[in-house]
Amino acid sequence: MKFSTSTLALALGVVAAPALAGGLAEPVADPVAPAAPVAVAPAAPVSDWTGAYVGAQLGYGQAEASDDSFDEDGAVYGAQVGYNYDFGRFVLGGELDYVGTEIDSDANEIDGVARAKLRAGYDAGAFLPYVTAGYASAYTDEEIGGDDQFDGYVYGAGLDYKVTENIVVGGEVLQHEFEELGNTDVDLDATTAAMRVSYKF
């Protein structure tokens, strides 16, 4: 069988066309899905509140007896010593303090108040907001019902701020409750608000 030149050329063109078309096509890459965002853990507190401290305080107090025999206010001033332990975000500590007072009347005077408190706070870096509660003992100039020392309890809240790693300033508001003073049915309530400065070891 004989083929003409035109027939042969046409057959070669039909065979070569797909090959040439495929050879000129650019490869198409599969689309890549964007990477999922990675959650970043919150930064740990930069301050460590663990350690002992000593300091001083100055403020104002107001005391009132349940029978209206005493309703006075005045300055409060004293010193504190304590220890905190930082668990990461939670801070637990204990503190002893004593404040003298200028809360007095013509009949009597509150000489001072001693306190033993537990503190629980939140480590917010340089800030430490906390709540506190514990035992309080008040001393008066004159006897009430045969006694001049009265046991009670105290509770309140405060905020400390770390100026440096060793210097801490803050404020604290406390409520004191003393029930049945001496051999009487008289209760005494006292509120104090004080500014504090402490040296942390």
Index terms:
201 residues, mainly beta, Porin, 10% helix, membrane, OMP-like, OMP/PagP_B-barrel
Notes on the structure:
The chain contains one helix and eight strands; from the N terminus they run H-E-E-E-E-E-E-E-E. It is mainly beta. It has one domain: Porin, CATH 2.40.160. An eight-stranded antiparallel β-barrel has the order 1-2-3-4-5-6-7-8.
List unreliable stretches of 5+ residues. Answer: 7-12
Count of alpha and pi helical runs = 1
Quickly give the structural class: mainly beta
Distance between the termini: 111 Å
Order of helices and strands: HEEEEEEEE
- What is the CATH architecture term? Beta Barrel
Describe the largest sheet. 8 strands, antiparallel, barrel
Give the fraction of residues assigned to helices.
Answer: under 10%
Strand content: over 45%
CATH topology: Porin
Report the average pLDDT across residues: 87
Count of the separate structural domains = 1
- Counted beta strands: 8
Secondary-structure topology with pairs:
Elements: H1 5-24, E1 51-65, E2 71-86, E3 90-104, E4 109-122, E5 127-144, E6 147-162, E7 167-178, E8 188-200
Antiparallel strand pairs: 1-2, 1-8, 2-3, 3-4, 4-5, 5-6, 6-7, 7-8
